[in-house]
Amino acid sequence: MPSHIWWPAAVALLVTVSAQAQQPPAPRAAALAPVPALGPLVGRPGSELASVIQRFVADQSSLTRRYDAQQSPDQRRRMREFYSAWRTRLGEIDFDRLKQEGRVDYVLLDGYLVHALSLLDRQETMRQESSALLPFADKLLALQDTRRNLMPVDPQAAARTLTSVTKQIDSLRGLFEAFGRGGTTSGSPASPDSARAGAAPPHVTRAVANRAADNLDQVRGVVAGWYHYYDGYDPLFSWWLKDPFAKLDAAMTSYARVLRERVVGIPAPQVASARGQGSLDLNSSDGGPIIGDPIGAKGLEADLVYEMIPYTPEELIAIAQREYAFSLSEAKKAAREMGFGDDWKAAMEKVKDTYVEPGKQPELIRDLARQAEAFFDKHDWVTIPPLAREDWSMEMLSPERQRVSPFFLGGEMILVSYPTNDMANEDKLMSLRGNNPHFSHATVFHELNPGHHLQGFMVERYNSHRQLFSTPFWYEGQSLYWEMFLWDHGFQVSPEDRLGALFWRMHRSARIIFSLSFHLGKMTPEQAIHFLVDSVDFERANAEAEVRRSFNGSYPPLYQIGYMIGGLQIRALHHELVDSKKMADREFHDAILQGGPMPITMVRARLTNGPLTRQGAPPWKWANDVPPGLPSPSK
Question: Which of 146, 173, 243, 367 could form an SS bridge with 255, CB 3.0 to 4.6 Å?
């Protein structure tokens, strides 16, 4: 520390210490969490495969860093070899000699490897779909592969490659500029050769074109990294490559712009704005079209197998519709108590108008969090360690983040969504109404304790190797389960609070319907927005943000169904084990948290010591075991 800063600080410190010496000793801070007893932690039994999984995670991380040109020829080959070899080695383990926790980890790791190979197949299919738009991608990505293999570069040959690819890109761009979208001519052709040949541009869907534009941005970034590695350090490289690289970079930028404007349909000003801000994820920007990338019935089937869900997408939609019908019936009951008859939407509008004034939302969130913790303490349903009550914090979401996250997010830090002073007045009002106290009352504990914050707290302390198997059916499913659990135990007393809880319950039902329908090709993003507005009484801007968030690539395809489906699975398991008196509430809930993330079918196998083979657990038709009072599909 510089002396001119140290001296005044030292004087201030001495004054402070002198003053403190005249005061009686301060008592120990009551907020300090006690250290847990360490005896039970010594030699704690666990899975025999914990070290195996930790080794796999370390090896996978090393390869991901080594093969950093995503979707390059070497990266695709090496990851397929890696997952296949690991599955072979895993098969050499004597499964029958493992204890139940070891068998659980075996099944989880094998399922992970099978799904990873399945995703490589899916990526290959998607790559083929866009190959007509990016026929040069492998050639450019191979440049980075060669560098990573520590092979010497041939500057003159590399210059020829970049020049050749630039001509290819300009030719493709010229086709789209000449013919426009849908094969119609738009403007003067940029490629005279293409125009003379009368060639038409490749015909692809908006989703494929959007994916290709995103991939093109990624390739452009890889090539730039490759170029700057040599530039200036190898004079001959710079001599040959400076001009070809600049032309290639400009060509890729122009081509991506044309794909987005002419094929995807993103307005030109928005494309230019995103490029100027350095933001290339146009799906998450405000105001542009929501495109998404549906994976189809085959993709959904593979993902449902990985999550051990023995139902078809259509059956899951039926479960969601039955759950929605229950919520709608309860919403009408609450509306009648509020004096609105069966007009639950009018009652919901009144609830939305109860928002607190600007600047007061953090205090509301704090009070609701403490209220929920006190309610759990009263009933002793789950262990919430003192440190887990102390270590969470709060921050505010930026206006940009609120465009795709109109409601608060949680974990160790709860991120509060509320208007800022530079928002448009209409946006301010929608944010105020969408984050009113009654909506928040039903979800603060979803984000904090005993929801996401407690989940993360426990995962770091018990079976942490299972973070590899993270799944929304465990994380989001638990938090949604707590919402249903507290509903059953009278946490929402007033009709306004019950409507707030039902808003989210209807929302999670709707998520199943619109997300699966989208991936099956039965609902567009715009239809999904209207569906949320009509069936859940979403604010229009919040509905758009919700759909954008669901389809912008930030979440896996089954993420949005994980809330309700995971919650219903845990609810059925609670009925099986706790309602039958085989386990106590606290024992049941602590066992789930301490077991670590995994498909709920595997949670059941752990808690019941159920039969496991190398192929996994028997199919569990949990929806037929949902407790009375909840809608369930017919057998």
Answer: 173
Half-sphere exposure of 151 (CA within 13 A, CB side): 11
Range of the domain at 174: 137-284
Is there a single domain that holds both residue 167 and residue 247? yes
Domain membership flag for residue 431:
no
Residue 583 near residue 607, CB atoms below 8 Å: yes
Can you list the alpha helix ranges (DSSP code H) found in 435-494? 437-441, 444-447, 452-459, 472-488
Number of domains, the chain: 3
Token duo for residue 340: 């609105």
Note the pTM of the prediction, 2 decimals: 0.87
Backbone angles phi, psi at 414, to 5 degrees: -90, 125
Closest CA to 128 of 197, 76, 198: 76
Which pLDDT score is estimated for 627? 61
Is residue 493 scored above 70 in pLDDT?
Answer: yes
Residue 295, pLDDT above cutoff 70: yes
Q: Do 125 and 141 belong to one domain?
A: no
Instruction: Examine residue 378 and state whether it is found in any structural domain, yes or no.
Output: no
SS3 393: strand
Inside any domain, residue 185: yes
pLDDT digits (tens, 9 = 90+) for 100-135: 999 999 999 999 999 999 999 999 999 999 999 999
Give the model's pLDDT for residue 426. Answer: 83
Residue finishing a domain among 222, 255, 284: 284
Phi-psi group of 506: left, alpha or beta (phi > 0 → left; psi -120 to 50 → alpha; rest → beta) = alpha
Domain boundary among 95, 129, 163: 129
- Alpha helices by DSSP H, listed for 338-391, are 344-352, 361-379, 386-390
Which residues on neighbouring strands pair with residue 393, listed in sequence order?
A: 413
pLDDT tens, 316-359?
Answer: 999 999 999 999 999 999 999 999 999 999 999 999 999 999 88
